[in-house]
Amino acid sequence: MNELQGWLLDVYADEKHGLVLWIIDQDGARRQLQQTFPVTFYAAGPFARLREVWQFIKDHPIVAITEREQRRDLFSGQRDVLTIEVANAVQQPQLFHDVIRRFPDLDYYDTDIPLAIRYAAKHDLFPLGHGRFLIDEANNIRELEALESPWQLEISTPPLKILTIEPDSNPQHAPPRSILIGSQASKIRIPVRPFRSLLLSIRASLKRHDPDLILSHWGDTWLFPRLLQFCNDEGITYFNPNRDQERQAVQRGENSYFTYGQVIHRGRQFHLFGRWHIDRRNAMMFSEYGLPGVLEQARVTGLPVQEIARKSPGAGVTAMQMQTALRQGILVPHLKQQAEQFKSVAELIRADRGGLVYQPLIGLHRNVAEIDFISMYPGLMVHFNISPETVGVQGENTRLIPELGIPVDQAREGLVPATLRPLLAKRLAIKEQLAGLERRDCRVNSLKARAAGLKWLLVVCFGYLGYKNARFGRIEAHEAVTAYSRDVLLSAKETAEDLGYQVLHMYVDALWVKHAEETKAGGVRQLMGEIAARTDLPIALEGIYRWIVFLPSRLDNRIPVPNRYFGVFEDGSLKTRGIECNRHDTPPFIAKTQLRVLEKLAALPEHQPLRSALPDVIGLWRQSVADLRAGRLPLQQLLVTQRVSRPSDEFRTPSPAARALAQLANSGKQRHPGQRVRFIYTRGAPGVYAWDLPTAPDPTAVDTARYLELLVRAADTILRPLRVKEERTRSCLLSNAYQQELPFTRH
DNA sequence: TACAGTCGGGG
DNA sequence: GTGTACGACTGTA
Which of A77, A75, A80, A94 is nearest to A43 (CA)? Predict the structure, then answer.
């Protein structure tokens, strides 16, 4: 027997060993351990049918132990179930597949829980967690003990070895010529051709550095598939990028899926065993919170690093709920693959009422404070015990949901609040720690990334409550949250008005207020204290704006739109929402000019009227107009980027993006739903030129008039609130005679 | 004018 | 292996 301590890198099932664990031990050695880990799932239904299942399993070649038990279903309470325990975890999916095919009429539970989640729930050991292991001579784990909790703030950090791999171009656009391979110690550049020597170089790098993580650009979609294809074609067997040399890397196919109201495309994936591979270009959230955020999510969700890196945070939330359920002995229902179904009219009307959206007071306001509720929706779920199994349940101790009058059972903490409580607490603790650090402290970046990783888990958990395909979702719980949020925001509004503030705007979890006399930090603190006391929810001061503009609708300038605004905080920093520079389909030069204009306005001395900057501002726009007309702008600056929602042949109207997509398809460049197309507007038919076509667009074909119109619109967004009419803006920007008749005087 | 298609936002 | 629903806006016919 041998004792060792170390960090968990990875867990997976194996035909031979049952469960395989990779750890970094106290001496920095990477070790492969094994463990016996039987896995259980459940069937429920009429007694006679369960008896048939029992008989079926007895005769099945996969070894399993069955037992009759009572377990708790979250919604229907105690149920009689048939417990099926599979000796080797790797065989569980196969056995379940055979059982459900033979007995499709029964209810099943705990059928599709990721192995790492089962492991975390059973042993409290999670990816990157520190533990103590007692092992025998054959590296079998006999005993183990977790030495840290995913919820502690200070984390023990394993000494990870990282190898970065980066081609010199995006393979989707141009074939890379060389690859940069980097480690802590060195950086080397290797030519892509000849391919065999590239393969040998990568193999040598892997041998020399033995990385825990290969962090690549386009490793999923380009490099590794190419390398493997080459090995296949040439009959090469000596290349295996896994640390577990008995395993072959797993490839998963590309897919498109619907989320966040849009279609996302995910390229094929390339997963390794014993070490991780993350393709940062195929891990859609990577740019949001980076490696520290991904690792933080792996810790708290229990999902393997390679999985959580590529998945949406929704998968992480589900994993956390599964862990809670496993720990509390609650059955996890099998997820039926149900097609997206249409909502009934009744459902539509009911679901219609979301978060509170107020009509802002259009125009320019000075000295405005913005107060935000921190993680409001998750906070409400925890505070009011909102969970699918507590909403609508009348018990000894219930609370009524405002407006809806539906009871919420308070007798025991719900599954969703129980899952979120530590997550919320940890994010708040990290934010508190951040507030106490100097801006240049070396811990700041990683703490921020970790907080962002946690934030995204919290953000999506609300959506999951109302999601039909979620395990623990229920529309009434979803509505309860929005009902409470409206109530809380209205109560904050009353509080503000009681203290002499005018409420200019409210939006879901934020309110903008202005004091009748003067909005001052001290007064706002007092207001916040009062709001916090009345609502018992955490709030934060987003900032005090020197000035802020709430924009009207472009189609009717009497109608305010709730989420189009821009403003400048006291420290001179900008905040903009919903305007051209925020949109991903705005050509870069237009977005840049608009931002530069806003920075010019932000730089004005505190009490100077914004109109005094008009000559400078018009000058900036005119410069942009002149650059465009003279053809001085690089064509990249004119690119419009849009995400397409469907294949080329399914477009019913030939929108610019659809025409660009068709051009690409004609030249053999496939774009899938969820991928982006880039194009420039050109004169005449077809009006666009796709950027990634084999030949570069003709610079003289640029549809200058169209870009000028886009510029005028972006200028109008900023200038209209400064009392410059759109026609005036157009003539100021486009007229050659402008210099002679300066319309705005300098002060 | 109706319809089709994309974007934002959370933070 | 995938939050929702919706309004604003633009471009096409």
Answer: A80
- The pLDDT > 70 percentage for chain A reads 95
- Residue A641 (CA) to nucleotide C13 (C1'), in angstroms, measures 24
Looking at the fold, whether A569 and A623 belong to one and the same domain comes out as no
pTM of the model: 0.89
Residue A267 lies in a domain: no
A252, closest nucleotide (Cα–C1'): C1
Q: Is A89 exposed, middle or buried (0-12, 13-18, 19+ CB in 10 A)?
A: buried
Task: Find, among A71, A117, A107, the residue nearest to A330 by Cα.
Answer: A71
Residue A169: other Cβ atoms inside 10 A: 13
Give A630 CA → C2 C1' in Å. Answer: 47
Nucleotide nearest to A377 (CA to C1'): B10
Q: For position A738, what pLDDT does the model report?
A: 67
Q: Which of A520, A548, A578 is the last residue of a domain?
A: A578
| Strand B contact with A584 (CB < 7 A) | yes
pLDDT of residue A298: 95
A354 touches strand C (CB under 7 A): yes
Band of pLDDT at residue A348, cut at 50, 70 and 90: very low
Round and report the angstrom distance from CA (A687) to C1' (C13): 16
Give, in order, the Cα–Cα distances in Å from A236 to each of A200, A219, A223, A232, A248. Answer: 11, 20, 16, 6, 14
Positions in chain C where some atom is under 7 Å from a protein CB: 1-13
Does the CB of A725 fall within 7 Å of any strand C atom? no
Residues A396 and A515 in one domain: yes
Give the per-residue pLDDT at A567: 95
A657 CA → C12 C1’, Å = 12
What is d(CA A52, CA A36) in angstroms, rounded to the nearest whole number? 28
Q: Are residues A384 and A525 in the same domain?
A: yes
In this predicted structure, the answer to whether residue A289 has a pLDDT above a threshold of 70 is yes
d(C-alpha A502, C-alpha A308), whole Å: 44
Residue A642: give the domain boundaries: 616-734
Q: Is the CB of A684 under 7 A from strand C?
A: no
The number of domains in chain A is 2
Q: Is residue A382 part of a domain?
A: yes
**Distance measured from the CA of protein residue A159 to the C1' of nucleotide B3, in angstroms:** 57
From the CA of A100 to the C1' of B7: give the distance in Å. 42
